[in-house]
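Q: Entry one of two.
A:
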Amino acid sequence: MKLLDFIKLEVNFPEKAIFNTVALLEDDATIPFIARYRKELTGNLDEVEIEKISNLRKAFLELEKRKLTVIKAIEGLQTMSDALLLKIHQANSLVILEDLYLPFKKKRKTKAEAAKEAGLESLAKIIMSQNGADIVLVSKKYISKDISSVNEAIEGAKNIIAEWISENPYVRKRLRKLFQNSSEIASRIVKAQKENPSAQKYNQYFDWNEPLQKIPSHRFLAILRAENEGFLKIKINVDQEEALHSISNVLHFKNTSATKYINEAIEDSYKRLLKPSFTNEVISEAKNRADEDAIQVFADNLEQLLLAPPLGNKRILALDPGFKSGCKLVCLDENGMLLHNETIYPHPPQKEMTMAIKKVKSLVNAYNIEAISIGNGTASRETEQFIKKVPLNKEVEVYVVNEAGASIYSASKIARDEFPNYDITVRGAVSIGRRLIDPLAELVKIDAKSIGVGQYQHDVDQTKLKEKLDAVVMTCVNRIGINVNSASKELLSYISGIGPVLAENIINYRSEKGSINSRKELLKVPRLGAKAYEQSAGFLRIKNAENPLDDSAVHPERYGLVNKIAKDAKIALHQIIGNKEILHKIQLENYVKEDLGLPTLNDIIKELEKPGVDPRSKIKVFQFDENVNTIKDLRTGMKLPGIVNNITNFGCFVDIGVKESGLIHISKLANEYISDVNSVVKLGQHLMVTVLEIDLDLKRIQLSLIG
């Protein structure tokens, strides 16, 4: 099977688009680069579609690698035939390939192997041939020092037959279909754990049955977690009669004395070999599906979080709230550089309110503070209320910032390198402030799993999770574009074609030279060659460059085109930028070439209209209900403002200003049926919700968006 054919089995994209995309990927082009700057080659495929092709290419290469291993193993046994070799080459999945390899795999010593060693394989063949022979009479010939009776001989032969049946690819194909379509998952409480308080969060699964094909990913992962923790036992059930009938239909019966023994072998093969095998297989497949769903939920949340509205370059006073340990306070300049830090104690037990008010007022004036950022952890509401009591001489907006992962950052090597002379409390407060200035720039420094917007992220395949989250971060960073002279090493490393080594080289180069003054100058950075330049240049911005296109998403390879457009319009390059009247009059068809079509030309015109403009929305000030501070303040029927802080397949969680987030179940998001939570709400969205239920013991809050 060829790569193109393999991909075409899974996607319905034009063949030319697939071929060109694969060629670009094999040339080490990144997905953001391909999606943005090679639209003519890909037929305008977006990043999701290109990622699909990329993943299928990886799967094909893994399949081909496994085929070589299987072929080598079978040839080593000198049992390869032309027909089998052809089937191996034609296999389009690992499942089919492994079924072909199964009869040749080295196994632990099985009942069938023991029977073969005792010389019973020929008896098994006689039984399977159903030639009318008297099986009992024939079996007497096999009595030996190893086989003491006719029954033992027949039993051994049936063990061999059972293994043959379990390895029959047609049997496996039928049973696989049955298990995939008709399996039911059942979970039961482990009796000894029934009263265990820790098991109670899984109480809905103490006696649970559900079709495996239909079980939502979050429910399946919850059941698996409960099993791993020892609270539940799970079982996969299918109709046994249907399964045995499926096997029998593959075999041809002649109704002889052998039929009875073959039927017994079928039942044994199913119960002892096939059912356990397919039970493991469908659980593994369900786990893979659940992982993919959970990873996609995490990826969608992460993308929304990374693309959250930035306040921009403002001078920030940031507070990491606390009671006994006080509120760590830092002042940052427009670029997030630390200017000052100290601790204030406005809350119990110290209650140094007057001193804290005086200090905040003094710092706001001294450092010309333009906004205040407060972490949303312990004592957040109390700190927000305290700050709003401070009589400032000017209007300063107050923002509550999601601080999930700030403690991870503050203890990381990145933070230690940035602030070697400060402790983790200062670093955490700096992170809270910088998240207000630019969430993307700060969050790329934290392991994405620690940002707190996932669903069962610790239960899924960690390699796949990391690959997906890294891809999301890269997509977001390149979608925004970054200032090459102010970006951190971590931010630069996610730019298409750069990576950690070149990012560090860029940092060192700009430190030595003072700044990078043009995109072309990037080629002077050590080890940043033509390929890396091609991949990265369009995503790197040079502020106040001699060529204004250096601060845009127009790729340097198209500078000549833009100059020609300006020349044809009889206007200087700098005058055409932002000039919508002239740009809208340009006849783009006049500039179409074989490698340059309308998709790219339209992108260039859009960029020339608003070069380098941040596509993220503007940040909005949010205010919780001042009368609600803890879960005990809640009453059913209350209508409260809230912020969406996590999205799952079954609903969204909303911060309403108490320690515990409330859940809006998917059924309470709209008056009509909703299949995708993201179609109604987005991370960080401001909502007005209604309190439906409050469980003080379990600290659970049920909310509704429909009243």
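Q: Entry two of two.
A:
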Amino acid sequence: MDLSDSVEVLKGVGPKTAVILNKYGIRTVRDLLYTLPRDYENYEAPTSIAEMRPGKVVIKGKIDSLSSRRAKKRNLSITEGVIRDTTGAVKVVWFNQSYRVRQFSPEKEYYFTGNYEFKNGRYSLISPSAAEVSGVDPISGLSPIYVAHGGLKSNDFKRIISKSRDIFISIPDLLPSVRHGTRAKALFYAHFPNSEKSIGGARNYLAYEELFELILASQLNRRENDKLQAEPIAFRVNKIRELVESLPFKLTMAQRRAAWDIFQDMGKATPMNRLLQGDVGSGKTIVAGMSAYEAFLGGVQVAILAPTAILASQHYEGLKAILEPLGVKIALLTGATKKKPELKKQIREGVINLVIGTHALLTDDTDFMKLGLVIIDEQHRFGVEQRQKLMLKSPAGLAPHLLAMTATPIPRSLQLTVFGDLDVSILDELPAGRQPITTAIITEVETKEKLYPHMEKILQSAPDQKKHGIKAHGQQIYWICKAIDDVDGKTAGDSSDKLDITSVKKRCRRLREVFPNARVEFLHGKLKPSEKDVVMEQFAAGEIDILVSTTVVEVGVDVPNATLMVIENAESYGLAQLHQLRGRVGRGASAAYCYLLTSGDMRPSRRLTELVKSNDGFHLAEVDLKLRGPGEIYGALQHGALDLRIASLSDTKLISRARKDVGIFLQNPENMVKYRELMGGIAKYQQITTLN
């Protein structure tokens, strides 16, 4: 059987079932075989009914007296029956599962797994899962549990897979010879395990297979990039030294290393494809500025793409002060830029050497005379098509050098797999004078006693005079809220934990009452871009003392005078986002603080305690990977869906082995033709892993 055949060729899959499967992305035989169990039930040692005790139990017996009724008051269906074995009988109850009436045959034996508890005046087995004894491996007692899809329950998947049991023996390997087994054996034991060990071996094989595909995709992207031609830009050591000596601060060693990596890449005739990742406040902008100056000296134009107008303006002001005295003509291009036709004409004619802008850079009428370097700040905020649109504005036949920047540290394992086609430079040092941020967890009941007095002290502290022309009464404060309007919400954890969420507008009103002499304003994502920019400009200029905002300030303007960050409902944010928000303060010479405000008396989550312990974004990124998994983190770093079903990106040994084997695989060009299924399957990974 061809694994690319429609799932309808399998026994037990008619047109109606196929429609449901197709809806959930299961279209081919291969899709179905790779729909692996989410877990396994162990029926090796069931308890007799006479020996049952309250708690989770597994029993074996026959069921009868099944009936279903509706409870009008509670608006749910109640299905009841009696399970019997040779030692006794027990009542069983299911809620909103009326199909159970039709599921069982009185003559057959079943395993039932559920909670035995006291309910409505008697002990009952509550909403147990069920498996036919004849369908469970008699030696291991293991039975797979599948995720339900629409009307198809776990048992429906078991039935379909069981009817297809004979096809496993003829499944060809996807990869070249893999140590320890075959794909046929791995898939068989994933669906029909004969021991816990066989499950582990199967999942290990399939995880390796998945990592191999992912790493192969990123390495092929690297090969494609190496085929492109770019304008080589020679390193001009004396000019760069002149720039470095003119800076009002001293570069960190990490900045020097990153700049050197970039200069080496730009000197090649193949385009640079480098990711510059640095923790919040680590000084990525000056490295970008040095790169832009090098490109200017090489006679090519530079474009810096930023996600917001205010961030673009900040880059423009900072780089203008450093580069214009050296002869670089710089322009700012955003939606609000006046005299756009005139500016675009100057860009097209090569009068402008460096243009910094937002999405306005991507319009069809924005052309360059000789675009040689593209720098994308917060690259994950732009889709593949947007990045490509800017890259294609380079001269015909040449690709620009690409420097992508991110303030979100990427876990090492993601660098080795998803971002394997990129060269990576890391800024892991903070510039001299930066203050560590003191972080503390505080409950809502402690706000009046502990938080408000500290805020009062901050508001009366001398402002950071380094910011020329600042109009603040004292130092400034961010207060982050989850919602814009007054709503009730839930935590990011257990859906049963209700949480009162104070909105931006409500918190703003309260703070105005508590601090009547402070200038308190709010900011949120539903404001017009121009309105958001005005508020942030006022805050940066010191005209606002307390800014109450949603997470729109996560990546934003640099405000050295902001020294206190309060994150309300902190338990509802991810670790990386909390770290990014915290990084909005601590940018000046004054001590900085971050309060994680929690509601209720629940014990603080691990992500909050980790944030208190560490200011190291790279350590926190690794912790976040373990807590959330690669899919969520990758989705936040780059547009695309990383759907790893089996592999764990914390398994460094397996990643290392797969990387080594991919290298061997790529040494033989015939493999590209020989392993057709593999090459077809990695196309999705190639699309979501490429930057260039």
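A: Comment on entry two: The CA atoms of residues 273 and 402 lie 5 Å apart. The radius of gyration is 30 Å.
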